[in-house]
Design a protein that fits this description.
Two copies of one chain form a homodimer.
Chain A (H helix, E strand, L loop, with lengths): L1 H14 L2 H9 L3 H10 L2 H8 L4 H8 L4 H8 L4 H8 L4 H10 L2 H11 L6 H4 L6 E2 L5 H9 L10 E5 L5 E6 H5 L7 H4 L7 E2 L4 H11 L3 E5 L5 E6 H19 L12 H27 L2 H6 L2 H29 L5 H34 L2 H31 L4 H29 L1
Parallel strand pairs in A: 1-2, 4-5
Antiparallel strand pairs in A: 2-3, 5-6
Helix pairs in contact in A: 2-4, 6-8, 7-9, 14-15, 15-21, 16-21, 18-19, 18-20, 18-21, 19-20, 20-21
């Protein structure tokens, strides 16, 4: 058995890349995960950690003391190191920084100074810069003095004497230029440097829109601070898209798929509790009409149809608007048009399905009145769902509340209340 | 007014990049969109088209004849061109290909030969290849003969005499090597080339995991066919993540946010119809217990709580599993553990919220029995929801059905039926 373990360890440490190991750990239930983690070489641990999701990172990091942390983390790039450190308590961060040498510490502190979800938190400080008036030939000789260039170096950054950003010198462009040309003649000057405070999602949009591999980051006064590379941006893109999906189900983006029973139960409990309030609100509305239901039991049979069709219609609009907001398509200028479109589309689908449901209800209960009532309630609920589904996410965002997280609960509450209220209310008017 | 239009046209065509123009078009309601599109320079149209979403692409492309198409599309890279062409009818594709010169046609036909959602559909054929036994110096001189290198060229591809893939020569590595070293000495040989038939989502996983900028694509017998670049992979990643979100609401990934009332109504109608079947199924179950409800109207008031809590709990599990499957974490090996975890977590949350709901129901209706019944029904429904939420997406995927699209409808049907059946069924046993 220990022979088998040794073999697994060999494959793990020499056959797989750190990101493969991280993926394997993330895909393993707790016991196997602990076992595998023990087999990972000490020198690889830092590399593996940076690819793990935050939930799991925090778990491992919290078990180590400052000296162990410093040892594990020493070879990481400054942005990845800062990401990991930011999950630790202030006191531990200070201890880890103390064990590092002066140069490394300054490198990391520069990145730590910016929030994780901004350009500053994404950037690396390992830039290669050149001056505009030297020749390509000199640049090539200068590069040759390096043992290796930083990963994802597709361009060198051109700065002036005061370290202010001037332009980008793409390596591919340099390779097809005359060696006597100057950097100034070859460089691109139409590149907009990224302000260090820009939100990471905006950075991702820029990378996707302009097909960037790396981009310079500057301070407010134009000084070069570092550069952002596509590998870190790809992670932002993945997380962003993931987040809407997970939030809409009340889940966390960083959630460990194989979290323990206890952790899972605790997290889900919160969301179920919030939704229980919605459910009780709906019940309270139904409770107002107990007498009517006692007289016409068919109402109890049909009422979930009105509520659930409203919920479905509303969540379609909600999802479309949340997605449109996330990719920057929806703003004040076009909301009116959208609201109109949703309103008319809500009426059309309301009328269509109201007719179908009305006919079915009449046939089922041999009662024309109940068909007319459910039809009216359906049209009302589908139109309300369309309008709320459009306006709600924009309102929530303006209040800095995550529309994906809060949107679906609030919307369901509205469609339940309006659905039961309109159906049972109309029924009370006509049957009482 | 025409002066203002001219000014808009000037800004549009000289101030914005093609991807900016595409974003502006996507963010505009139909009338403004048509107006803006007319202002875009003919030479830019092809470039802009490739950045638009598929819905809008198809709309514009269908208005053009083969000659206009060929003119607009002539400057695109082969993979982007193939993407656009694939949306046209066979006959139009053939016509467009006929108007192209021999070399361009062959280039495009190579890519068209592979499905859009495979490595072959993503690849470009504009590779720069070198032989292993020449020196770095010769490579640099060879590169200098080019006017420009293809976009995203971070590595040259090393092939043998028979055009079989041997290794990658990163440009950054070449720049720090001795000019007398041979390509063979400098190149990386631990790069796994991508098989041309690999699914695009798998390609995206490889790029994200190994931080790639470009990767070689080979045929089954190892011949180099082309290369895939990160810009196209970023699009795949965005679409993939988007797809789960949109599918769960019954929406299409390529859906135009500003589609017309008519298009929107038609698409939504289908989803509402499917969900109406779910709603009627739930009603049919309630209908079985009309007599019990007539006796105890409180049942009608409380029954939506059981169904909705089951739906919420189930959709949390469903979303987690769908996400885990999408990023390749969940497979046969760990499903059992997951099922166990969900089972126990379902019991714990079931018992917790059953207690809360039972107490509330007893207090509300002054009836101990109804509290006990709703508690039992809640535990049953939450456990069923957890189990179905885990197994259903795996089952659907094994049948090649999109779990995000079909999963939520089927799950809701199950939690509604089980919720109403267990609550009203138990009530019938004890109150009848």
């Amino acid at each position: 058995d220990s022979g088998a373990l040794k073999q697994v360890a060999r494959i793990l440490n020499s056959g797989l890349s750190p990101s493969d190991i991280a993926h394997l750990l993330e895909s393993s239930p707790p016991r196997q995960r602990a076992l595998l983690w023990n087999l990972v070489d000490k020198e690889l641990e830092g590399d593996v950690l940076q690819y793990l999701n935050e939930d799991i990172q925090t778990e491992y990091l919290s078990r180590l003391n400052a000296r162990e942390l410093a040892y594990i983390l020493e070879d990481l790039e400054s942005d990845d190191l800062a990401d990991l450190l930011q999950q630790l308590p202030e006191k531990v961060i200070a201890e880890v920084l103390e064990t590092m040498d002066e140069q490394d510490r300054q490198r990391v502190e520069k990145v730590l100074a910016y929030p994780e979800d901004t350009a500053g938190g994404l950037m690396n400080t390992d830039t290669i810069t050149v001056r505009p008036d030297i020749s390509i030939d000199v640049v090539l000789r200068y590069l040759r003095q390096h043992r290796a260039l930083p990963p994802m170096t597709d361009s060198l950054i051109v700065v002036n004497r005061r370290d202010e950003f001037i332009g980008m010198l793409p390596i591919t462009k340099m390779l097809v230029s005359h060696s006597t040309a100057t950097v100034r003649e070859v460089m691109d000057t139409d590149v907009e440097p990224i302000p260090v405070t820009l939100a990471d999602t905006r950075v991702a949009t820029l990378f996707a829109r302009y097909d960037l591999i790396s981009a310079p980051v500057v301070s407010e006064d134009g000084h070069l601070l570092g550069r952002i590379t596509i590998d870190d941006v790809v992670d932002v893109i993945r997380e962003d898209a993931d987040q809407s999906l997970m939030s809409m189900a009340g889940l966390d983006n960083d959630e460990d798929t194989f979290a323990s029973v206890w952790t899972t139960t605790r997290r889900r409990a919160v969301w179920l509790g919030v939704n229980l309030l919605t459910a009780f609100t709906a019940s309270a509305v139904i409770g107002l009409f107990e007498d009517t239901i006692a007289k016409v039991v068919a109402l109890a049979v049909l009422m979930p149809i009105v509520a659930s069709m409203g919920g479905i219609a509303g969540s379609q609009t909600l999802t479309l608007v949340i997605r449109g907001m996330a990719i920057g398509q929806i703003s004040g200028a076009n909301v009116r048009w959208l609201l109109n479109r949703e309103f008319f589309s809500g009426i059309l689908n309301g009328v269509l399905w109201a007719a179908v449901v009305a006919l079915a209800a009449m046939a089922w209960f041999q009662d024309v009145l109940i068909g007319a009532i459910i039809a009216a309630a359906l049209v009302i609920n589908l139109v309300v769902a369309a309008l709320v589904g459009t306006v709600l996410p924009l309102f929530l965002k303006s209040r800095n509340i995550d529309p994906a997280l809060a949107g679906s609960v609030i919307l369901t509450t509205v469609t339940d209340v309006v659905g039961f209220m309109s159906f049972l209310g109309l029924a009370t008017l006509f049957y009482a």
